Amino acid sequence: MVDLKNKIFFDKDISLSALSGKVVGIVGYGNQGRAQALNLRDSGIDIMVGLRNNSASIKKVAKDSLKCTNIDDLIKKVDIVSIMIPDNMIDSFLSKKMSKFRIGQTILVSHGSSIIYGKTKLPDCINIVMVAPSGGGKVVRSEYENNFGVPALVAVHNDFSKTSIELTLAYAKAIGSARAAVFMSTFKEETDTDLFGEQVILTGSIPMIIIESYKVLLEEGYDPVVSWFVCFYELKTIVSLMFEKGM
Fold first, then answer.
1. If DSSP codes are grouped into helix, strand and coil, which group holds residue 175?
2. Three-state SS at 228
3. Cβ burial, residue 122 (10 Å; 0-12/13-18/19+)
4. pLDDT of 215
5. Predicted pLDDT of residue 4
6. 118: closest CA among 92, 81, 98, 97?
7. 42: helix, coil or strand?
8. Is 111 considered catalytic here?
């Protein structure tokens, strides 16, 4: 059993046994879906990918030597349905496919907004969990290949089987996140803090500060190239130092 008094988990704290004998189905093969699928496979997890019949990603899945099927067939066959389509499409997906899920099956997402703020009523007889890596799919894959990982938040929204936390942590380990750190959270906390971080900091204040600072230097007659390097390029070096040294 997992000690839930512990809020931070690392590789040594987690066993993959919760995924033993289970099949993970990845719905979608975009940025995050492909990365998680490949990491799961390389961790020895039995996976298959579910796509629309006319999906442009079918050839990419075949090139990666993964099993591929249509989405309805995937839901019938797998134990865990990892939904890796765009967040704004998940609620609609669930409303159309919910009747196809069976008792005790697990739905896994990498962002909680579709569950917290979605309109689809989800039954109590399925498990609903989240593994949310703190990085895009490209980084999730490259860090795994470098024998490290991207930290992740994990949460359990509904635990019908009473073993969802062990399964969720095992999934986080299998995609490499526990090599860095895995943090216990909730769907509401992950959703609201993620949206805040994206809208206020990442796509809000930081780009605005860069652009407005650049404009000030141009208005004062300074060279555009020098001004751009000062306002934009040097930001990367400072952020890299923050990661290395701390604030």
1. coil
2. helix
3. middle
4. 97
5. 62
6. 92
7. helix
8. yes
